Amino acid sequence: MSDEELLRRASAVPRAVESRRKAKVAFMFLTRGGIPFRVLWERFFRGHDGLFSVYIHASPDGEEEPPEDSVFYRRRIPSKPVEWGRPSMLDAERRLLANALLDASNERFVLLSESCIPLFDFPTVYDYLIGSALSFVSSFDDPRKAGRGRYSRRMHPTVTSAEWRKGSQWFEVQRGLAVGIVSDRRYYPVFREHCRPPCYVDEHYLPTVVAKLAPGLNANRSVTWVDWMRSGSECVYSSNNNRTTASSCFLFARKFEASALGRLLLIADAAKRWNWH
């Protein structure tokens, strides 16, 4: 189906009845090719069927399918070429969200790249996300040229300079906000038309739109860090019951390049930390 039809259908899918279905986390991989840490992710997901869904947006001429027993087998959605920093990047993110929304059991949606890894085991990540009352979208006012300097006055009055925000591309959102993103017909055309390099739409669209549509439902931080580490400064965590301080602010980490040896060392470290057998 066309992107427009996909987005329309995704916007209309009702939320699953909680008493009948267990809430799932949708793991959405936006990749340039394969998933180099596939072994690590497969171990992460093992034994937790029914609590997660996997979606992959990859280059149309990407690598062959993984083995049939892999959680990544036949999880690639209909994809189109993507240019980093261009509107096609935003289109790919919305395409992933829309496909994931078609499953009414998906309640949380996290965007990851092929170089992302989980920093904790599945139960820890699942409980952290499902138990949160907020989404995790980095959104802040950057007064520098790389922030406010990218704003185009042609976006006014739909988006004003005071509303302009910047943030990390790697987000995690709850279902209600995901529906708002794929059903957006007001802000998306403005960003697609007027946010072109040196304005990078993946760094500004979601941070700005989320700040406008649901400021009280966002933690204003990402759960993905661009380094391989678990520790971080303390942050506020709002569960469905109360508001506390969390010592773990990041659930995933991303690094641009990794050698084969580096990947092996990382998997070995994860095996030790997660008590693999």
From TrEMBL:
The organism's place on the tree of life at top rank: Eukaryota
Pfam families: Branch
Tagged with keyword DNA repair: no
Record membrane topology: Single-pass type II membrane protein
Transferase keyword on record: yes
Keyword vocabulary terms for this entry: Glycoprotein, Glycosyltransferase, Membrane, Transferase
GO cellular component, one term: membrane
Subcellular location: Membrane
Signal peptide from the UniProt entry: none
GO molecular function, one term: glycosyltransferase activity
Main localization category: membrane
PANTHER family: CORE-2/I-BRANCHING BETA-1,6-N-ACETYLGLUCOSAMINYLTRANSFERASE FAMILY PROTEIN-RELATED, GLYCOSYLTRANSFERASE
Record protein name field: Core-2/I-Branching enzyme
